[in-house]
Design brief:
heterodimer, A: 273 residues, 10 strands, 37% helix, B: 180 residues, globular
Chain lengths: 273, 180
Amino acid sequence: MKTIPPSEIRSKLTELINDCLIVPDRSVTAALDNISASGEPERTAAELIVANNRTAESQRLYCCQDTGQALFFVKLGDEVYCPDLIGTINAAVRDAYKTARKSVADPLTRINTGDNSPAIIETEPTRGDTLEITFLAKGAGSENMSRLYMLTPADGETGIINSVIDAVERGGRNACPPLVIGVGIGGVTETACSLSKRALLRPVGQNNARADVAALEKTLLEKINGLGIGVAALGGELTALAVNIETAPTHIGMLPVAVNLQCHSLRHGTVKF
Amino acid sequence: MPQSAARDGEILIADPVKLSLPTDTHHIKDLLPGAMVLLDGVIYTARDQAHKRIAAAIASGEKLPFDLNNAAIYYCGPTPAAQGRIIGSCGPTTSSRMDAYTPLLIEHGLKVMIGKGVRSDKVVQAIKKHGAVYLTAIGGAAALYQSKVTSCELVAYSDLGCEAVYKLTVKDFPVFVSTV
């Protein structure tokens, strides 16, 4: 059994969170920097975002003021011992967010917790002697526009396409496009929602390994970029950079589809111990 | 590979319109939807909880944290300022969450709203009826926007943290005309 000291996890996670909040996924900036054949004001909007991301990195500033709620996806090997892992992750959140925005409040009183804790943590038991922790900062602007559709088997692929398009048409303009769109299909309600969130972590441009799912991703991306929403919702051709679908087996009477909209400030990273 | 020429904080667009704040209907009516505008002058930050309090203050006749007449509100909750800086990162938040309060504020003199995303029909009607304007800022361009802020002063509701009302002075602050 390998023991990983809390102090090591805490310091590495704090560093990871800080770096993620300053430099968003480089594939997003690269895509905006190489935007082609778009008219105004979409081109200018893309240039402003590229300038923003460069300013953030060179001056060590947060790329977005909504430094988000802190989400963690933990893969915990069965030969690893991490005392008080949840407490350690929350300690790292408190450390890292000292200089970031405190964006977490009680849902009823709206009183701020003051330190951006608690983190939202999903833990998956795995085999082996490694601990892997992935951080994702999720802002309200895009998370608020995310949706769950409880379809029936008869709705099928057409229903899935209509649901994703509906979510983007209704919420895409508010969610800071160009978007990365995570779609979770199957399982039960929380499975679909979790899959839709995990789908955001897949590198932009990498399709699902299943050919039928990859084809659906391509179909959806083309349709979404035909909606005309564009960069910063000012009208244009680049509404989404990727549609990433993840699936899980579901009940014979169900077809849950969760659609998670992610803004262009895609902030995530992984540390392994 | 083609590269844009955008560099730190530099804005590349030909002939953007300048708008000095505070402004009035006379100046607003000439703005064209879709046009890029560079703002100079005073804007007040206010988001969810500040709007709730301002609307309550209007309803009860209490003194408002700032003069709403011809004022500009920026839907924004900045990150804390790093040492030696005027303000932290300060991009726009989603405007539609303020829709429930906005017609009331427009009736009481609010002229300029800066945020991101779409507005409700009621807000659009109030904007048109009272000669106001809704400007779209680039969501997620928060580090860029902090470079356009030349002063920042806490005005009210300090207990709200990032949701407090701040008086900002901005220079060449880039936005786009959405509804006028």
